[in-house]
């Protein structure tokens, strides 16, 4: 059996995950990537999405990340995320409210005070959080 790797997911505010994993998959800006023990070292930026990993007991886990960076080493994966939360911690009501606010902002096409890039990013984060939280658990 292959060795486990250490997975660390941290934000500027807190450590979200610090545990052993069999495999880690993350949403790189150039595409999803997977890391097993013994992986060649590399570093990449991340986009909005889910870090999926299989814990040492064989359970699949999910963590929402909204951008950041990942470093893979032969024995560990470190993710420095702008924000991150485990799937079980996602507040769907809060995410739906954020989605509604972003959609309302985007409807105001002629309002010069609206930052549309920021509103689109907020909509993407909220949408992904909702999808991840409502995904069927196996």
Explain briefly what this protein structure is.
This protein is of the alpha+beta class. It has 2 helices and 7 strands. It has 2 domains: 5-87, F0F1 ATP synthase delta/epsilon subunit, N-terminal (ATP Synthase, domain 1, Sandwich), CATH 2.60.15.10; 90-134, Single alpha-helices involved in coiled-coils or other helix-helix interfaces, CATH 1.20.5.440.
Q: Can you characterise this structure?
A:
This protein is an alpha+beta fold. The protein folds into two domains: 83 residues, F0F1 ATP synthase delta/epsilon subunit, N-terminal (ATP Synthase, domain 1); 45 residues, Single alpha-helices involved in coiled-coils or other helix-helix interfaces (Up-down Bundle). The chain is built from two helices and seven strands, in the order βββββββαα. Helix 1 runs antiparallel to helix 2. It starts with a strand and ends with a helix. The model has no long low-confidence stretch (mean pLDDT 91).
């Amino acid at each position: 059996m292959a060795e486990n790797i250490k997975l660390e997911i941290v934000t500027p505010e807190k450590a979200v995950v610090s545990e052993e994993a069999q495999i880690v998959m993350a949403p790189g800006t150039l595409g999803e990537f997977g890391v097993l023990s013994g992986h060649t070292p590399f570093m990449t930026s991340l986009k909005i999405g889910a870090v999926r990993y299989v814990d040492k007991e064989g359970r699949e886990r999910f963590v929402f990340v909204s951008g950041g960076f990942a470093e893979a080493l032969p024995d560990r994966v470190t993710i420095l995320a702008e924000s991150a939360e485990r799937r079980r911690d996602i507040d769907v009501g809060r995410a739906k409210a954020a989605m509604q606010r972003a959609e309302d902002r985007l409807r105001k096409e002629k309002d010069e005070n609206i930052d549309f890039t920021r509103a689109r990013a907020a909509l993407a984060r909220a949408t992904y959080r909702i999808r991840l939280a409502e995904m069927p658990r196996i």
